[in-house]
Amino acid sequence: MVGDVPIGGGAPISVQSMTVTRTADHEATLQQIYDLAMAGADIVRCTCNEIEAAEGLARIVPRSPVPIVADIHHQYRMALAALEAGVHCLRLNPGNIRKPEHIRLVAAEARDRGVPIRIGVNGGSLHPDLYEKHGGRVTPEAMVESALAEIGYFAEVGFDLIKISVKASSVPIMIEAYRQLAEVTDHPLHLGVTEAGPPPAGLLKSTAGIATLLAEGIGDTIRYSLTADPVEEARAGRQLLEALGLRERKNVDLIACPSCGRAEIDVVAVAEEAMAVFADREIPLQVAIMGCVVNGPGEARDADLGIAAGRRRGHLFVKGQNAAVVDEDEMVDVLVEWAEFIHEHGADAALARVDTDRAAREAERDRRVLLAEQGDDVNDGGARIERIRSRIA
Ligand code: SF4
Predict the structure, then answer these.
(1) What is the DSSP letter of 125?
(2) Rounded distance between C-alpha atoms, residue 245 and residue 12, angstroms
(3) Is the Cβ–Cβ distance between 277 and 252 less than 8 Å?
């Protein structure tokens, strides 16, 4: 348990993120913790790098909406101070808190308080001895050996409230390190690709590493380490778990067609506008933005709600059933209003407000006009196939 959040043992995979404020500035840090929790973080880590940070934690912990982990590097005394501040978990880096007597002291104090510790091995700050031993480079074996050595120190004082991470900035090395670790320990694992960088590459690297392992059944809690607003980290973590079906959907799942020659609107712009408006609204529905009424309602029939464009107006549909016709420039506003209504009252109540027969007739009319104007091969696929056949023949 990290505070009231269970980790491992079949518990839901949790999302973590880290504040970038000075922890000593407890008001700014608390504000960011609330933002992260809103975006999907179940647990938040704050650096504890100076005595003022530990004092800040003493003010933050009682007011935080989620459990707090203190991030400790170099100074074991900061771990003791953070425990005194009441944090729910410590993160220790074995690469820079190296003296066994210091490690044992912190572990004994955590044991007495019932506070867990994450052994946070990081490829970039591996213990120098291990670095040398493994050929002067970061290897999965070196990171696993570092974690096991730390577990050994903890065991000497009877402490086993442990979770472990072996993060590297190289995705293949990180994946292999976690695979090896999962073979030799049953402790919960915290997954992440360290220093993944700014989006979109950072998002891709993190997703590649974390999703691969989760699909193999490895991992109990995750963090995206992005060079970006940490709210993006929390949101990405949550979205990954929802996409993999590992957590209940909390926010809108926006789907959109890729657009093609039939599109009657700028699908990318409308989808981005909708993404921004729905953002952190807690509406667990799938909402579709489709470029044309010819194919859109059919292709997105499983969405809870969607809109398809047709001749400068939008055709709103609910579970594939036409519901309303709206002006093109009101499409996103109307989607939000319907999404909120459906979330609160259900789809049947939403449909009962409108004349669905009329909406279906209007959609069919636009569909026919578009088909007449564009033909049924607007992307020219059939004509191309004919040309290919005539050349080959
Ligand atoms: S046919 Fe219509 S719904 Fe399908 S990709 Fe093209 S514009 Fe989008």
Answers:
(1) G
(2) 11
(3) no
Q: Please indicate whether residue 374, judged by its CB atom, sits closer than 6 Å to ligand 1.
A: no
Per-residue pLDDT of 290-333, as tens digits, reads: 999 988 888 888 899 999 998 888 999 999 899 999 998 899 99
Mutate-to-test residue for ligand 1 from 266, 289, 299, highest number of ligand atoms within 8 A of CB: 299
Distance CA 167, CA 173 (A): 9
Smallest CA separation from ligand 1 atom 2, residue = 292
Q: Which of 157, 85, 90 lies closest to 118, judged by CA? A: 90
- Tracing tokens 């490895």 back to the chain, one arrives at 218
The predicted model scores a pTM of 0.82
Bridge partners (DSSP) of residue 16 are: 43, 223
Ligand 1, from 257, 265, 379: best to mutate by most atoms within 8 Å of Cβ? 257
Q: What is the largest CA-CA distance in the chain?
A: 82
- Is any ligand 1 atom within 6 A of the Cβ of residue 286? no
The SS3 of residue 259 is: coil
Q: Whose CA is nearest to atom 5 of ligand 1?
A: 259
Q: Quick check: 84 pLDDT over 90?
A: yes
When pLDDT is cut at 50, 70 and 90, the band that residue 376 belongs to is: confident
